[in-house]
Write a structure and sequence with these properties.
Elements (H helix, E strand, L loop, with lengths): L6 E5 L3 H13 L3 E5 L2 H6 L7 E6 L7 H10 L6 E5 L4 H9 L2 E6 L4 H33 L3 H11 L4 H8 L3 H15 L4 H16 L5
Parallel strand pairs: 1-2, 1-3, 3-4, 4-5
Helix pairs in contact: 5-9, 6-8, 7-8
Length: 211
């Protein structure tokens, strides 16, 4: 894995742990940056930068959990690996609800940690590809007329041309023309493509949850 695949953002108030983690990750050929507090990370915050977070929960000032919740409120979909020596079930549940994808307790096994990091970086790359595709599809949907959006919804629901015509009070020929226009504007080859496209876009309305 190269540095182009994303950066591991290490957030831990313990200098020794922070430095050790950075050396370990960089030795494995993965780019890493370290921060001594949640506030320091937020000062250089850029949601567009790919990667994942390696986050300690127990920190002075803003806690790891508070940072998780802050990022969730900003729609940041980067995977977060929670690293803590004080794990308990309620804390783990709260961390997962706030967006953590993994929970590792200190002391940890180095190979396991590196594997979890690689998985998180791959997940982030997958989510960013999905988000880009969804944005492109939404742009195409926005180019549809209100009537075409109605017809699209019915096509996706599995309605036939005759059923759509009857419900909208249109001629079947008119519905066929709308369907042709929709296929062209959406860049779809079939009704199956339209179903897939709308499925890709649904999570965008509710947040950045990867597929």
């Amino acid at each position: 894995m190269s540095g182009d695949d994303g950066t591991v953002f290490i957030i831990d108030d313990q200098r020794t742990m922070r430095s050790s983690l950075r050396r370990l990750i960089e030795t494995a050929g993965i780019k890493a940056e370290a921060f001594d507090s949640a506030e320091a990370f937020l000062d250089s915050y850029d949601v567009q930068r790919p990667g994942c977070l390696l986050l300690d929960l127990q920190m002075p000032g803003m806690s790891g959990l508070q940072l998780l919740e802050r990022l969730a409120s900003r729609g940041d979909g980067r995977p977060v690996i929670v690293l803590t020596g004080h794990a308990d079930v309620p804390t783990a549940v709260r961390a997962m609800k706030a967006g953590a994808v993994d929970f590792i307790q200190k002391p940890f096994q180095i190979p396991e940690l590196l594997e979890r990091i690689r998985q998180s970086l791959a997940l982030d790359a997958q989510w960013r590809r999905w988000k880009l595709e969804a944005a492109q599809i939404l742009d195409r949907m926005n180019a549809l007329s209100p009537r075409e959006r109605e017809v699209l919804d019915m096509v996706v629901d599995g309605r036939s041309t005759r059923e759509i015509a009857e419900e909208l009070g249109l001629r079947t020929r008119t519905v066929d023309l709308h369907r042709h226009s929709i296929m062209h504007k959406m860049g779809a080859r079939s009704s199956v493509d339209l179903v897939r496209m709308t499925a890709v876009c649904r999570p965008v309305k509710g947040g950045p949850t990867p597929p």
